[in-house]
Amino acid sequence: MENKFAVKQIGVICADCNGFRIELAPEYREALIGLDGFSYMNIFWWFDRCDNETDRSVLSEAKPYTKGPDTLGAFATRSPQRPNPIALSCAYITSINVDNGVIGLAYIDADDQSPVLDIKPYTPSLDRVEVPQVPAWCDHWPNNVESSGAFDWESEFNF
């Protein structure tokens, strides 16, 4: 079942004293045309600090969430330890500079200089589920990204 394919890094996430942003490589700046007008986007990025044989072999976690079950499979978590350390974040767009290839973000849960693989506009018709179902152990989590900022996430994790 092994396929060979290449994933190209298109930019980096910057999380520093100037805030959060994506800086695209010059050859991808043209791809920003038409993104203005969208308020949110989905960002696919690489958990590069977990790209090693040990982290890629973790298939389950012992009680990663305080109210979760004793064991969860990697695909039931958003842990960076997984077979392919691909991350997905939905972020609010604060600015877009096509000429410089910079997208300002209100926040992103990524480390500074994390590689960006792709971005897509958030569109409710394809990305929003009207009534999603989640397990009981996490049904008290916020119902949307806007409410997540005020939520006490620190009390939810065991890592």
TrEMBL record:
Statement: the UniProt record of this protein carries the keyword RNA-binding: no
UniProt keyword terms in alphabetical order: S-adenosyl-L-methionine
Domain TsaA-like per the UniProt entry, residue ranges: 7-131
Keyword S-adenosyl-L-methionine applies: yes
PANTHER family: TRNA (ADENINE(37)-N6)-METHYLTRANSFERASE
Family: Belongs to the tRNA methyltransferase O family.
Protein name per the record: tRNA (N6-threonylcarbamoyladenosine(37)-N6)-methyltransferase TrmO
